[in-house]
Amino acid sequence: MRPLGRALVVAVLAGALALAYLWPFRAYGLNVEDEGTLLYQVLRFARGELPYVDFATGYTPGFFALGAWLWRAAGDLVTLRVMLAVLHAATVAGLALLVARLARPSLAVVLPLLYLAFIPVYPGEFCSFNIPYPFWFTTAGWIVTAGCMLGFVRRRGRVWLVLAGVAAACTFAMKPNSGVFAIAAAAASLLLVRESGWRGGALAAALWIGLWAGVVGGVWLAFELTLRPVELVVYLLPLLGAMAALVTRSRVGRAFLVGDVAALLGTFAALSLPWMLYFLQRLGTAGFLREVLLVGSGAATLYYVPYPGFEPWALVVTALAIGFAVAGWFVAAGRVPPAPAAAVLALGRVLALAAGRGLGLMPEGPAWSIIWQLQSAAFALTLAALAAGVVWLWFRGRRPGNVAPAVVLLFALFMHLQLYPRTDFMHLLGAAPLALVFAGYLLERAFDAWERGFAARGAFGAGRLVGPVTTLLLVAGIAVAVVPGQTAIRRPDRFVLPFPEVPVGVEDTAAGEIRAVAAAVGALGAFVRRHDPSLAFPAASLTLFLSGARNPTPHDYFYPGRPDHREEAEIADRLAATPPRALVSANVSRFTFFDGAPPYFYLLRRFVRERYALVARDGRYDVLAAGGPRREPPGPAAAAPVPPVTSALAAAAAATLADDVSVAARLAAVATLADGPVAVVVPPLLAAASGPSAVLRQAALAALLDLLARDGVHGLEHHVALAELDRGQEVRLLRTVRDLRDPRAASYLFASAASADRRIVSDAVGAMFVTRVQMIARRYLWAGPEEVRAWPDRAGLLEAVRAALADPGAHARTVAFAAELARALRDAGSVPALRARWHAVLPASNALPPGSVLPPTSPASMASIGAALAELAPQGLACELLALLPGYDPEIRELVPSTFLRLAEGEEPMRSEAGACLIAALAAAGPGRAEAMWIAAALDDESLAPHVLPALSSPDPVVRRAAAWSLGEAATGDAVARALERAARADGDEIVRRLAAGALAKHAGTAPRVLGAAPAG
Hints:
Among the domains are: 312-486, no CATH class; 511-626. Helix 5 packs parallel to helix 19 and helix 27 (661-673) packs parallel to helix 29. It is mainly α. The strands form three sheets. The protein has a four-stranded mixed β-sheet with strand order 5-6-8-7. A two-stranded antiparallel ribbon has the order 1-2. A two-stranded antiparallel ribbon has the order 3-4. It is globular, with a radius of gyration of 30 Å. The protein is 65% helix and 3% strand. The protein is built from 45 helices and eight strands.
C-alpha cells in the first residue's frame, strides 16, 4: 500500500476507535460552571446578542457563531455532544495522519488515542470532552494548519498556504491566542524553506529578517512582557533556540518568500479583518485591544497558575523515556551492546513499577494513582520532547530532508505557548497535541536506533520487538486511563435531568449536584418566567439556560477581577434599572477560584442583600426573591424512628458493601438520630469516612462532624488516633476533609500538619487552604453570612490556633487558616500573635519590643489576619488595611476591601477612624486610589463627595471611572452635577463619559440608584 493510502487507513482506524470510546458518554454528566456558562453564552448569541457588545467573553466570535449553528442543528445537549464526539474523532484522525507522516502506523494509532484517553472523566460529575470548550475546535484548527504547511514544504504549491491561512483564521475566530500563535507557527515554517540556486534580492532578505523578528517580537508582546523566570525558561527559551536555528544563508533571502508570505498572511488577514474591523468600530481601539485581544485586560495575572513542580514519579517516568532514547543512540553508534542496554532499561521499568506498587500509597486505588502520576509526568515529558526537538533542530533538523519534522516541531513549540497562564492539566491538553506528534517522530528515531543496533549484532528479531513492546506500554497507559470512565458508564442506576434540552444524568449515588440544579431551576421558575431577567452568581448560568431566564447584564462568569469593580457597578446599574424578581447564587463552590467572588464583588452583594431574601436552598444553590417573605430552606426528610446506634452501625456496614444513595442519606441522618454513647457511634462513621467510596465518605464525615460538634468533648483527631487508621485511610480521610471543606475538622488538620509524614502534612495543608477560602466565602453569601456555631473540642482548637500563629516556622497556609479560625472563634487570646505577624509587614512604632523576631507573612495570611483583627482588636487598623491595597495580590483584593467596609460601618470610634483613613486614601495618588473610590461608593455616604470629586480630574482613567460612578450614588449639589456634566461631555475616556452620564441620570431621577442604606458587609 502506498504511504498516503496507509496513512488514511490509520487515520480512519484511529478516528473510529475514538468515536467508539466517546459514544457511550454522550448523555453522561454535566458541568455546571464551565459547560453551563458556555451553553448559555451560545444561547445568547443564538438570540441575537453579540460577544463583547452584549456579553463578556474571552473567546472570539467564530466560536459562538459555530456553537449557535450547532445548537440549532442539534436541538438538545445529547445531539450536540454527538457532534463534539465527531469533532474529537476527526481530531484524533488528524493527529494520526500527522504521526503517520513521521512514524510507523502503530504509533500513529496509539499516540492520538493516548491523548484522547487522558482527557479527564470525573465519575459522578462530568466528562471534559463533552464540554464545548473552544480549545477542542482550535486543536482541530492547529492540526489542519500544520498539515497544510507540511503539504506546502513537500509540494510547494501555494494553495497549501491559502488553506493554512484559512485554518489559522478559523482558529483565530475561535480563540485569540490560539489563532495568533497558529499563524505565527505557519509564518515561522516559511522561514524553514530553502531554495538551492534561487536567491532573492535585498527585499527578500529584508522580508525574511523582518518576518523572523516579527514572529519573535510578536510572541514576546503577546505575553505582555510579564513572564516570570520559570515561564521564560519553559516557554520562550525553547522557542528562541528553535528560531535561532532557522538562520542559515540558504534560507535568508530566498526568491519566492514574498509570494509565499502574501498567500499565507493575505488569506489570514482577508478572513480576519472583516470581523475585527466590525468590532473595532463598535468597541473603539482601547476596548478592542482589551476585550477581543485581551491586551491590557490583566487576564494573564488574574488567571495565572504557576508552572507545577514535578512529582518524583513523574521524573522517574521522564528519566526512563529519556534513557530509552539515549540508550538507543549509544546502541546504534556501537558504543553499548544492545542486549545489556535493553536489560538495564527493562530492569529499570520493573523496579519503577515495583517501587510504585510497594512504596506508592494509591489511596484511591491503582488506576487513579497511575492516572494522576501520568498527568503530572505529562508536563515533564512535554518539556523533554520540546527540548530534545530544539537540540535535534540544531544538529540534524537543518538538513534538507528533515523539513517536515522541523515544521511539526515549530508548530509544537508555538502551540505549547497556549498553556500560559493557566498551567494545569486541562490546558496542557490544548497545548501539547502537536508536541505528542513530534514525540512520535522521536520515538520512531529511537526505535530505528535500537533496531539498527540489534541488526548490527545479527539479532534482527530482537530488534524488531523493541517497537511493539514500547507501544504495548503506551496501550497499557490508555487502558488504565479509561478505567474510571468505563466503570462509571456501566452503572445502570442513573438520575436524568427532567429537561428536554438537557436529557443527561449520572448514577444515583452521585446525583446530588444535578438534582439540586433541577430543584433550583424549579424554584427559580416559580418567580421568573421565560425571557424574564435574572442573574446567576458566580458561575451558575446553567440555571438560566434551563429556566429560559435572561441575564440583562453582560457577565455570566464572575471571577474576582474579571469583571472588575467598574463592570460590577454597571451590572448593578442594569439590575437596578430592570430588577429581576429572583436570582440564583451558589452557596458553595466546587472550584476554589470562585470562592473569592462573594467577598470581592461587594457592590453586588450589598445591592442583593438590600433587596432580596432567600426563599429556597437546594444543595449548592440559593434562590433569592425580591420583596417576598423569607422562607427557611427545606429541611431533610423525616427519618424513621429507628434505634440511633443501630442506625449508625447499619449505615456504616452497608457503606462497605454497596454504593447506594439511600446509604448516604442514612449516614447524613445519623447525627440527628444518634443519642447513644459517642464512642459507640463514631468508629463505624469514621470507617465509612475513610473508606473507598468518595460519596459515602463525604456523607459519613458530615454526619460525624455534626455528632462531634454536638458532643463538644473531643475533636476528630482524638477519634482518629484511637482508630489507628493506616496511612491510606488517613490520606482518604484528609481528602474527604478537603472536599467537604468543613471547618469543624480544623483541629484534626492542625494535628495532621504536625505529622512526621510529609504526605500527610502536604494533604493537611492543602485541606487548610480550601477550607479557609470556603469559610471566607460563606461569610459573604448573598443569602447572608453563615458561620459555625458549635465546635468539637473548642478549647483544644483554640490552643492549636494560638500555637500555629506563634510558630515562626509554620507554613503560610497554616498561618492563614489559623488567623481565619481565630476570627471565627472570637479568640481575644490570639491578638498578640496576630499583631506580631501583621506588623511584620506593616510595622508600627510601638508594636513590638526591640529585637523581636518577626515571622514572615503571606498575602493570604495578611488578608485573614486583617479580618481577624477587625473583629478582635480593630484600633489603628483601618489605615493599615488601606495600605495593603496597592499590592493587589488576589487574596488582598478579594478580602481586604470588605473587611474595611465592616470597620467603616461599625461603631465609634472605629467608624470615624476608618472615615479619616478613607479620605486620605481618596486623595493619595497610586494604585490603591481606585479601590478606595469603589469602597467610598459602597459606603453610600454623601459626606465623602467633596473628597471624591477631585478624582474626576485624575490622569488615571481607572480612578476617574470609579469617581464618576461613586458620585452618582451618594453625592448631590450643583458642583457635583457640573463636574459630571463636563466629564460626560469631554472626558477622553469613553467609559468615564458613559459612567458620568449615568451618574447625571441618577441625579436627575431618570435612573435608579443602586445602593441605599446598605447593611454591613
